[in-house]
Specification:
By secondary structure, this protein is mainly α. About 70% of the residues lie in helices and about 0% in strands. The radius of gyration is 19 Å and the shape is elongated. About 35% of the residues are buried.
Length: about 140
């Protein structure tokens, strides 16, 4: 029997940690009110991931970016609901196609917003780690 072993980098380990901590809160926000999402916990999870990876000498910006994409992924559920409603409204086919294209554009903008916000939050977490004396690189001879 063959065993499959996946080796994750430090960046992905902490990104998954921060993102998976934020994802349940994103789901709760979507279920509570899909009309207005604050995604505060995505920023917190990204900052935490950036802080933790910077303590190990990793790239906090990339980790925050990935954590935000993982933690914010449930927010796309609202776009799916919107796109699924389009065919039920009696409109011409071209109008429905435009509606689907607009829904996909909003999804892309949402993910872009999450990615940029997560990268900034991760960078902030890395900055906090440096301020606390965790520069990441171990000094030579020590």
């Amino acid at each position: 029997m063959m065993s499959l072993q996946i080796e994750l980098s430090e960046t992905w380990k902490y990104a998954l940690l921060g993102g998976l901590l934020a994802a349940p809160f994103t789901v709760l926000e979507v279920l509570r009110s899909s009309g207005s999402l604050t995604l505060n916990m995505v920023a917190v999870g990204s900052a935490l991931a950036g802080y933790l990876v910077k303590r190990r000498g990793g790239n906090s910006t990339a980790t925050g970016f990935r954590a935000a994409l993982v933690g914010g992924l449930p927010a796309l559920w609202t776009i799916g609901e919107f796109v699924s409603i389009i065919p039920t409204v009696p409109n011409p086919l071209w109008f429905q196609a435009v509606g689907v294209a607009m829904g996909l554009a909003v999804a892309a903008l949402l993910m872009l917003f999450l990615a940029v916000g997560g990268a900034l939050a991760g960078r902030f977490g890395g900055w906090l780690a440096e301020r606390r004396g965790h520069g990441g690189a171990t000094p030579a001879g020590g």
